[in-house]
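Hi all, long-time lurker, first post. I run a small reading group and we've been trying to get comfortable going from sequence to structure in the token notation. Rather than ask abstract questions, I figured I'd post a concrete chain and ask someone more experienced to write out its structure so we can walk through it together at our next meeting. Sequence below, copied exactly:
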Amino acid sequence: MSQPPKPNLADLRVEIDRIDAAMHELLIERGRVIDQLIEIKTRQGGGSAFRPAREASMMRAIAERHRGRLPLDTVESIWRVIISTFTYIQAPYSVHIDVSGDDARMRDSARFHFGFTVPCVQHVGAADVIRAVGGSGGDLGMFALDGGPGAGAWWTRLVPADAPKIIARLPFVERTDHPAGLPAFVISKPLVDGGAREVVLESVTLDRWRADVPGAMGQIGAEVIGSAANGMGLSLLVARPGNIPADAVSEALRSAGGADVRATEVGAHADRFDASALRKRAN
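-- Answer (accepted) --
Happy to help. Here is the structure in token form:
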């Protein structure tokens, strides 16, 4: 039995053109669905276009099903731009970024995750980003985990009930050679729904540092990710699992000898997805 002829270069280019046209048509179709979504939300009185929990679920599924020669970096970036741009179409917003530290990496990260359609506004310091988001009509803010040089206890600015809150930690798909690997928080005005709560962040005030604090946090699966002196003693930024009681951090610190412990939630985000497990599986 004769074998079917192998495709030549011209055949493969035709196939590529067919696939490209199909992908473009699917994006146009996605836009029509977003038009319907906008109409429904308008009839229902609006609501936030940001859905961090859904975004995390989508990115996790994309990373898990990816295969082949195309780098995961490219796939992740394409979908991040698709998600961010269609969110912008629903409700235009800007991303306010802090460039007081590693400004090149911050700009790269902002463009990797939000693309070029979403306006990007530069600020100097996490405090300025928080202020800009708080005074906006629905913008996002982005800054490094440490808040940038000299930021101090920046997380205390998120304590008031109507202040912006952390809604995401980037990058979500974690790997050592991530092209936009600068660890960063994303903030927005408080979300009514749609937030991811696998990790909850709390601003904690103590009278002073104690050597038992890291151990006490470790026992409940929590971690101190920021600390700075303030007028009332010591301020900590603590990340805890979202499935433990809300008072678990305060109780653990009191058991470690902490006096006058006060803890206030300042945001939450999804668990990061470790892509190294996918590489091991592929190999």
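A couple of things your group might point at:
The chain has a mean pLDDT of 90.
The radius of gyration is 22 Å.
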